[in-house]
Amino acid sequence: MNPRDLSAHTAYRAGRGIEEVARELGLDPDAMVKLSSNENMFGPSPRAVEAIRESAERMHSYPKASHADLVERLAEMWDADPEQVWLGNGGDGALDCLARAMLDPGQRVLVPDPGFAYYPMSARYHHGEVEEYTLSKAEDFAQTADAVLKDYDGERIVYLTSPHNPTGKEFTTEAVREIAERTDDETLTLVDEAYGEFTDSPSARPLLDERDDVALLRTFSKAYGLAGVRLGYALVPEAWADAYARINTPFSASELACRAGLAALSDDDHVERSVETAAWAREYIYDELDAPTWESAGNFVLAEVGDAAAVADAAQAEGVIVRDCSSFGLPECVRITCGTEEDTEQAVAVLNDAIAEVGQ
After folding, report:
1. For the chain, is the Cβ count within 10 Å smaller at the N or the C terminus?
2. What pLDDT was estimated at residue 32?
3. Do 282 and 261 have their domain in common?
4. Around 31, how many Cα atoms within 13 Å sit in the side-chain half-sphere?
5. How far is CA 69 from the centre of its chain?
6. Which residues lie closer than 8 Å to 24 by C-beta, 6 or more apart?
7. Residue 175 Ramachandran class (φ > 0 left, ψ -120 to 50 alpha, else beta)
8. Whether residue 100 is found in the same domain as residue 134
9. Do residues 221 and 285 share a domain?
10. Which three-class secondary structure string do you get for 131-143?
């Protein structure tokens, strides 16, 4: 027998890890800098690490209490009812929950190009079909209502990313409101705010009190440094929040993840340090990298370096891993995660040599 026809599906290609690259190139992994996956270079909060250690002896139990505790804490933080908080196995899991709740087979979604590969993947997994709206490089990837609505044709879900990966651009709350108002009543406007802690712009959260067709996505993978435990969540309108109980997989967020998330939420200093360092790194990259860049509201910067694959390979050979954006349809660009001050300075120096040698 064979699986169902998956020919329209694409495989998700994660950024390569330090250990993998170090083995391949014969480099010392401790001397390498990985700035390719938008991870928190300070790691998780020490409180989250301790919570994971303390939770280890309870791994025989299902995460009933910890799930409820984390949902209550997030609901309090966002001034929402607990039923409006949908935990998932990373932000990806929350996307899957929303696709299961919203999509009938054959219904279409509208995703950004360039954009996060898992939006269309999740829709197709749930038997949806995918259309795209274009964020134009010629217009500096501006995220406006018109940029989305010119390609809208009644899709069931419209995916917005703010700050956007890989460009760092943002939608204003007013633009999100306009998109929701100008799309059909049965279209969900989904705002992915995975990098929301890194921007000074406000969340689109107030729209959930105004409308029943806007939802938000958040994650613990970025500012909270918990990418490895896989924890994310959606904030959904109160009107249909109880759908989660019908579509959620049993215990989709683990005991370790929930306990780590609760502890991370208690460590404001760790998040503040991460956000402030990312802001410093963005400015350093803008000023010191020998390539044009786009102003970013995330913990990364997109740079136009010429032959991105060649530049990324050359930098990797010198121990610095950045993201070649060819997979985003931008073969002339690399995305550089904001690292610590030391790592950022090292990466920029290595990239400048690579750009001079093989880039532009």
Report:
1. N
2. 80
3. no
4. 10
5. 24
6. none
7. alpha
8. yes
9. no
10. EEEECCHHHCCCC
Assess if residue 134 is contained within a domain.
yes
Residue 196's domain comprises 46-265
CB 149 within 8 Å of CB 342: no
Cα separation, 292 vs 117, in Å, equals 25
Q: Which amino acid is at 130?
A: V
Higher pLDDT, 6 or 342: 342
CATH number for 214: 3.40.640.10
Q: In this structure, are 52 and 117 located in the same domain?
A: yes
CATH number of the domain to which 321 belongs: 3.90.1150.10
Residue 202 maps to a domain: yes
Do 258 and 276 have their domain in common?
A: no
- Rg of the chain on CA atoms, in Å: 20
Residues 93-106 have a mean pLDDT of 97
pLDDT tens digits along 256-279: 999 999 999 999 999 999 999 999
Task: Produce one character per residue of 248-276: b if its CB has 16 or more CB atoms within 10 Å, e if not.
Answer: beeebbbbbbbbbbbbbbebeebbeebbe
Of the candidates 243, 265, 287, which is a domain's last residue?
A: 265
Q: What pLDDT is stored for residue 7 in this prediction?
A: 76
- Edge-to-edge strands, sheet with 333-337: 33-35, 320-324, 333-337, 300-304
Structure tokens at 253: 């967020």
pLDDT (average), residues 231-242: 96
29: confidence class by pLDDT, cuts 50, 70, 90: low
Burial 117-127 (b: 16+ CB within 10 A, else e): bbbbbbbbbbe
Instruction: Pick the closest to residue 37 from 322, 354, 327 (CA basis).
Output: 322
How many structural domains comprise the chain?
2
Q: Which of 213, 238, 265 is the last residue of a domain?
A: 265
Would you give the distance in Å from CA 177 to the centre of its chain? 21
8-state DSSP, 198: G
